Amino acid sequence: MDTLTHALFGMATYGAMDKEGLEKPVKRSVLFASLAASQAPDADVFTGLTETGQIMGLLWHRGLTHSFFMAPVWALVIFAAAFVIWRQKHWLIFFAAFINVVIHNTLDGLNAWGTGWFEPLSSTRVALGFLPIVDVVIWSLFAGAFIVKWKYKSIPAPRVWKVVLLLAALHISIQALQGTFIINQVEDDFDQVELSAGFVPGSFNVIGKKDEIVTIKNHNAFGRESLTDTLYSQEEVDLDPLLNKNKRAEVLIEWAPFVVVTKDDTQLGVYDPRFYFDGEKLLFESIPVE
């Protein structure tokens, strides 16, 4: 998910906690833990500052730092940082950090970009495709919470944030149920099939591959489906020249569930069809044909 969404969840979890009776340094520590942990797994973006990190970006980002096994590690690091700053050891500080790392990792695995939930034990990228990278429903819920807090000051803040978190969980559950239903309907028609949620709630792209044909269909909340694109993957093409000259292509092939191979008079390349929009290939690696 986007940085703002993660920060909003961090703020909401802090707001939903019962902090009555806690001293100010403890409250500040918990707020720090909530916000820091909501962003901590994305520390891997700094690997992009190196040349190797730029090449390996798809595999390194949302990799080990986003593993559920790292959640207690991140929580301990943030707990320690809070202790250094405020000299507080309240259990709520660790809990706030831990739960926000878990929320961050869970949300990232629910979209099509994929997350290494179980690294280093498994290199599998979990990319369920139930949510878009930016979810307007979630943003709207948080916007509504700020309006309610501003207009109805008599309502306790923890109650507002708890309701928002419950509604967000309900929205995510509905998206997940609909996405699962769609996949179960079509999975027998393809050798491989992936899901990618659209920005419109209840809208999904189903990307299915059978032999050399990749089909992209849109399914909406009303049960309607429409063919978006039909792509042809030139599976017989020798990819050795591409892999030898473009290391990012090798990374893309390893990272994506499947790719489309394309070759013409000017270039040889591969792209991830989940990120193919109106002829534009968002994740595309190629070399010129000599």
TrEMBL record:
Transmembrane spans: 68-86, 91-107, 127-148, 160-183
Presence of keyword Hydrolase: no
Name of the molecule in the record: Inner membrane protein
Keywords: Membrane, Transmembrane, Transmembrane helix
One Pfam entry name: YdjM
InterPro entries: Transcription_regulator, YdjM-like
Highest classification ranks of the organism: Bacteria, Bacillati, Bacillota, Bacilli, Bacillales
Extent of the signal sequence: none
